[in-house]
Structures are given as C-alpha cells and as structure tokens.
Specification:
Pathway: Alkene biosynthesis; ethylene biosynthesis via 2-oxoglutarate
EC number: 1.13.12.19, 1.14.20.7
Bound molecules: 2-oxoglutaric acid, fe (ii) ion
Distance between the termini: 36 Å
Protein name: 2-oxoglutarate-dependent ethylene/succinate-forming enzyme
Family: Belongs to the iron/ascorbate-dependent oxidoreductase family.
CATH architecture: Sandwich
Order of helices and strands: EHEHEEHHHEEEEEEHEEEH
Oligomer: single chain
Structural class: alpha+beta
Largest sheet: 9 strands, mixed
Helix content: 25-40%
Cofactor: Fe(2+)
Length: 277
C-alpha cells in the first residue's frame, strides 16, 4: 500500500485512489503531531494500568466510558471476544479529569482534518457517485454529537487467552470514515480482494484512514469498507501492551445516507445485527 504525502500537489487524488482500491489510505506529513499522539498513549497507558477504571464503567444507554476485557466486543461472525479494553470518549460524555483537555484537543483536531479529507473524497468521486451524496460529505459530520473517539488498550498476552481469540477479529467499521494514528506496536492488517491479509504501513507517525460502511452505503459501494484486524504479537513482543486511537466519524443522526437509510436507521440496523441493542 502506497503512503501518501499530505503536502504533495497530488495528495488528494492519490489518497482517494488508495481508498477506492483498498478501503485504506495512509498519510505522512500530516497536521497531527506525533508528540501529541505519543503523549496521549502514555497518559492513557497510565489510566489503563493504574486508573480507577470501574468508576468510569460505560453507561449502557449513552455508551460513554470504560469497557473492560470481560465485556469487550465480539466481532460479527466470531465466537471469541477480542482481547482488548477501551474507553469511549465523547465531548458530552464522562472523561477522567486529568486526561480531558488533551484528549478533547485531539478530538477537535482530528475531526477538523476529517472534514478536509471528506472534501478530498467528494472532489475525487466520479460525478455519478458524487450526485448520490445527499449533502456535501464534510457537512454530514458538522456539529455531530455522534463521532466517537475510542482509546484502545490491548493488554500483554498472558498465555491463557481463549483459543482462537485475537486482539481484534476481522471486522468492518460501521461509520463514515475512521482516522487512526499508527499504534505504538504493529499488528494491524487489511484484507485484499484476493482474501490475502496485508500489513497496513504502521510506522509511528503515519495516519491511517479507512472507509466505513456508511460511506460505502452513501457511495453505493464505490468506496469499499474493507475487513481489517489486529493480530497477536509473538515471542518477546507478547509481553507488550498496544495502544491505539481510532476516531470513528459519524454523521448527524438525521443525515440521509441513501434512499434506504439515515445515519440513525443504519446504525440501529447494524447494532441489532451485532446483538448490542
Ligand atoms: O487497534 C487498531 O489498530 C485498529 C482498531 C480497530 O480497527 C477498531 O477498533 O475498529
Ligand atoms: Fe476497525
């Protein structure tokens, strides 16, 4: 997968071509500083290791807060739970006081970059696809309360994990677009059309963007929401934690994705399939 220089003349065109081909695009030289990401990883690592996580146990109705390894997701079509714990950050939700300023700064920064990337997607959509969008794509996420920042912690492997369980089983994202700074450890893979799994270029500092089901729906399948997963580390790497920070961009609830679906109706259908609601 080719890495795209955000500052290059033809960045938009190259980036969107990559999204069309693989569902993924990888940017370097982008506006999100790696020092900021590094600081977030180390501050949240402290929270996951020593924080009073149960005090922030997730609210089932609102879905903000901490999700432990015991209640972690099981990907669609899989039996074993993923080996991960995570925290759902929403600007309107509960956030540990000492982590709040930094993480909300990141949320804003990444959301605004997402608007620009959606403008690229729109600009390089063929006219027959662009005319399907019910409003400009970057408009769909403006002032949305639905965008979710997930701070993920994959704990070191203890050796007693359920047979077949991995850090994140193969899945597609439900949302419009996902923005994911490279994690502090490898493991992220994307599935090609041939079925083969490919490592996503994950040098620290890279920014990984992938298409979610809602953009696939809005583009009538032109942009593919591709399967990806996080595999388990082996050997001495098994004792290392992994932290990652996907921002799941969601349109406002009433936004029309297609003739069949608004953001809200689409999300409900998908959550029902997952057995979450
Ligand atoms: O941890 C990662 O690198 C990817 C996580 C992911 O795909 C997800 O949470 O949807
Ligand atoms: Fe994902």
């Amino acid at each position: 997968m080719e890495v795209v220089d955000y500052q290059a003349e033809d960045a938009g065109e190259k980036f969107v071509a990559s999204l069309r081909e693989t569902g993924f695009g990888v940017l370097v030289n982008h506006p999100i500083k790696k020092e900021l990401v590094e600081s977030i990883y180390s501050n949240w690592q402290r929270f996951f290791s020593f924080g009073d996580k149960e005090q922030y146990a997730f609210d089932p109705a609102k879905q903000d807060g901490f999700f432990s390894t015991d209640i972690s997701e099981t990907a669609k079509g899989h039996q074993q739970k993923d080996i991960k714990e995570y925290y759902h950050v929403y600007p309107w939700g509960r956030i540990p006081e000492e982590l709040k300023t930094e993480i909300l700064h990141y949320y804003k920064l990444a959301s605004s970059l997402a608007g620009e990337l959606l403008d690229w997607v729109e600009k390089y959509s063929p006219p027959e696809v662009a005319k399907l969008y019910s409003e400009p794509l970057s408009n769909m996420i403006m002032d949305t309360p639905n965008t979710l920042l997930r701070v993920l912690h994959y704990p070191p492997l203890a050796g007693n994990e359920e047979l077949g369980a991995i850090r994140a089983a193969a899945h597609e994202d439900i949302n419009l677009l996902t923005i994911l700074p490279a994690a502090n450890e490898p493991g992220l893979q994307v599935q090609l059309q041939s079925g083969e799994w490919l490592d996503v270029p994950s040098d620290f500092g890279n920014l990984i963007i992938n298409i979610g089901d809602m953009l696939q729906e809005a583009s009538a399948g032109y942009f593919p929401s591709t399967s990806h997963r996080v595999i388990n580390p082996e050997g001495s790497d098994a004792s290392k934690s992994r932290i990652s920070l996907p921002l799941f961009l969601h349109p406002r609830s009433e936004v029309k994705l297609s003739e069949r679906h608004t953001q809200h109706s689409y999300l409900m259908e998908r959550l029902r399939e997952l057995g979450v609601v």
